[in-house]
Amino acid sequence: MTSQRGAWAPQSEHIGYAEIVQKAVKSSDALYRNGLGMIASENIVSPAVRDIVGSDLHGRYAEGLPGKRYYQGCKDFDTIEALGIELAQKVFGAPFANIQSISGTVSNIGALKALAKPGDAITAVSTADGGHISHARMGAVGLRDLNLTTYPWDEERMEPDVDAACKTIRDVKPKVALFGQSVFLFPTPLEEMANAAKEVGASVMYDGAHVLGLIAGGQFQDPLREGADLMTGSSHKTFPGPQGGFLLSSSEDETFHRKLNNAMFPGVCSSYHLHHVAGKVMALAEFMEYGEAYARDIVSNAQAFAGALAAEGFDVLAESRGYTASHQVLTRHGDLDSGAGAKAAQLLEDAGIITNMNMLPGDTKAMTPSGLRLGVQELTRVGFSKEDMEVVASFYARVLLQGEDPATVRNDVHELKQNRQTIGYCFNEDERSGYPE
Q: Cβ(62)–Cβ(263) under 8 Å?
């Protein structure tokens, strides 16, 4: 009998669906254990965090705030969340912290719910210039039905054109001036633009999803001291925790704090994934001890990798500024909208190097862009050094410039990765591999 369920269906009546899932999970585990995970929005968690994420908390509810719950059985979780709020306030230097968000995008939706009403104006970075999809009409901005105006962009510096952006803010008079990007090489020149926003009564929001760990580690910029009223972010990129988000504010206003908490629950979350919240708290505790060193090493490795790619002959963006001051490196591989980035990403995956194609300034088609966006935060966490980054750059050159068979390069990738399995910058770092066996 022919299955009508699609290509994923069992190929034999003797193979169960559970086996298909288990086999695919093990295959994915092996892909990253043996290969180089270089997607800028990903990371791995420490063994301690992984244990918590797999705990009984995964199926529990704790709507509300510590000490003010709608369910019984929350005493222990109250201890966890209260500690997490305290640690987040310390790590980010924030008078207010909410750690309930289940993602960076949900953090953005909650923030926009607190800051603006449908029909209000907002300014943000265009997705074509590296803004996140949640900053666009297709995402959270559209969900809140806000009227979007994007900032003029300085392509050479890979940041908003400050003078032109300030003029835009003064002309538009937005309710919210949103900063931060998904393609994020350098700190945003925030203070001058934040001052322009304050002149017209706008709230200043900074999406630090990609660079939150660099901010917390003191290696990027300090938005809450540079004019941002509110900072959102992800807990699983350069901040090395489980998937989730943060909502942070520089305000001391308790009325505003209540508004932010209400925007998260009941605004955009009911159950907020207690196992991930608890994992965030463990990651915060580890970051208190190791975060500064981790953030510093990420930036050092990214700069070494960018320089090595350029030396190999790649077109690495922002050469005039030293390529990067974050975890990200951007490379162009062909003409605009040519799909060269997609082709490069596939060849690299064939060689055991996991990346993502990405639109670069001038591209207009998300599925056929010219570039790659590369991140070094995962490799850094398993002990890659600046010298290792030069070897990794040579793998890229062998595949993409010299046309070597990716299967041959994959053997060398696996050999390099074999002795870099133990996760660092965490408690008990020598006890277990960072990758599931």
A: no
Residues 114 and 197 reside in one and the same domain? yes
Per-residue model confidence as pLDDT tens digits over 76-104: 999 999 999 999 999 999 999 999 999 99
Task: At 267, list the tokens.
Answer: 């605004």
Neighbours of 123 (CB within 10 A): 28
Q: Evaluate whether residue 127 is within a structural domain.
A: yes
| Domain-ending residue, one of 223, 249, 284 | 284
The Cα–Cα gap between 428 and 48 comes to 8
Residue found by looking up tokens 């608890």 in the block: 278
pLDDT of residue 12: 61
- Written as six digits, the tokens of 282 are 């463990």
Residues 6+ apart with CB under 8 A from 21: none
In a domain, 30, yes or no: no
How many domains in the chain?
2
Do 176 and 120 form a contact (C-beta atoms < 8 A)? Answer: yes
- The answer to the question of residue 16 being in a domain is no
Domain residues for 174? 49-284
Q: Which residues contact 4 (CB under 8 A, 6 or more apart)?
A: none
Question: What is the distance between the alpha carbons of residues 340 and 333, in angstroms, rounded to a whole number?
Answer: 5
pLDDT by residue (tens digit) across 3-17? Answer: 555 556 655 665 688
- CA-wise closest residue to 283 among 333, 245, 332, 331: 245
Q: Decide if 242 contacts 322 (C-beta within 8 A).
A: no
Q: Which of 366, 388, 365, 369 is nearest to 378 (CA)?
A: 388
**Residues 216 and 307 both lie in one domain:** no
Q: Based on the fold, state whether residues 394 and 278 are members of the same structural domain.
A: no
Q: In what order do the strands lie in the sheet with 121-124?
A: 96-98, 245-249, 230-234, 203-207, 176-179, 121-124, 147-150
Return the structure tokens found at 91: 């790590």
DSSP H helical segments within 189-266, as ranges? 190-199, 212-216, 254-262
- Do 365 and 235 share a structural domain? no
The reply to whether omega before 266 is within 30° of 0 (cis) is yes
